[in-house]
Amino acid sequence: MDISFRPDEALYLQIADHFRRLVAAGKLRSGERLPAIRDLARKLGIDPGTVARAYQELERDGVITGRRGGGSFVSMAASEAYLTELQRRRLGALVEGAVLEALGLGFSTEDIETAFTLRLAEWRERRGQAMPPAPAAVRAAGEVRFIGSHDLAVELLATHFSALYPDLRFSASFVGSLAGLMALESREADIAGAHLLDSETGEFNVPFVRRLMPNEVVVLINLVQRVQGLMLPRGNPKHVTGFADLKSPDVTFVNRQKGSGTRMLLDSQLLDLGIAPSEVKGYDREEKTHVAVANAVAQGQADVGLGAQSAAIAASLDFIPLVKERYDLIALQETLERPPFDRVIDVVRESGFQKMVGSLAGYDLSDTGTMVTVGPRPRPKS
Asked: Cα 85 from chain centroid?
């Protein structure tokens, strides 16, 4: 048997988990015998007492049964559903322990929820799991489908929504502002998220909504106003001060994907400066979230990225603020008038949620929860 032990958990628990997974996967079936304690200890190079304790843990949970002088066998009651429930209970106990410890140190529940959300976002990026599957075209009962631009405030919204309404589901897919609006127009999304600046009017999002959905009544709910800027390693070793420095051959950039508001902001700035994308080293490397850009800079894979201040500070990066922009949640009015979608507005306006978002750097909540309705354009008179 081959187990790759981790340093962050007791060995006996890892051995027990290994056998639980084998049983759940059907690789060990009811009635099959486990290796003898001394044989397994010798193979793993550990103390027999550690293996014995793992077996005791499994027996206590009903996964195995011991026969006096006859070894240990998988219990007849060890079904996949049973083991899944055991794992769920254990995870709940681990999370509860961390929450109680944090509460004991004086942190509020909002502080803890924010910290969990940030750490999970960073973990998903490191594991290459940042992009969840796109919500299904057919909405499941009790599901709110979000598609749009990434922001940590949206991840907090999804987490807090689930905490307040555990019988509902807020599914999120981060594909960029334009793709989010297109998904809304095609009814693949219930809510889109965007921060698109119209260069002609200087207005965020509304002009794009009018162009894409001229015959619909659409509601824009402000989630946050946020600061975007340049993310840099601590100390800014390449002495980057603005967009003009992206032309330097010794500066490596990390970009966002096509269709994202951040990418459009970059392209607009490069155009104004007369810098061709081909002159920016790293322009073709695309990431789908602000957290991914921040991680690339923090890990030394790039010298600079463009993104939200909240993600930069969470990754302990230096930051040069450049622009303040509106990030809106966008939905058809007819959608927001029905449950469960109307509850999204309640969560955005809820004090606990706003406290969590307000604890992060780079957010202005002065307009959070305010709504703007954009109606169909009047038809020209004949």
From this structure: 25
Interval 25-53: pLDDT, tens: 678 888 889 999 999 999 998 999 999 99
Question: Rounded to an integer, what is the distance from CA 67 to the centroid of its chain?
Answer: 47
Residue 353 burial (10 A CB sphere; 0-12, 13-18, 19+): buried
Distance CA 156, CA 170 (A): 11
- pTM equals 0.70
The matching CATH number, chosen from 3.40.50.1820, 3.40.50.1000, 3.40.190.290, 3.30.200.20, for 111-374 is 3.40.190.290
- Measured CA to CA, the distance from residue 27 to residue 15 in angstroms comes to 15
Q: What is the pLDDT of residues 316-359, one digit of tens each?
A: 999 999 999 999 999 999 999 999 999 999 999 999 999 999 98
Q: Pick one of 1.10.10.10, 1.20.58.2190, 1.20.120.520, 3.40.50.1470 as the CATH number of 11-91.
A: 1.10.10.10
Dist. CA 319–CA 229, nearest whole Å: 7
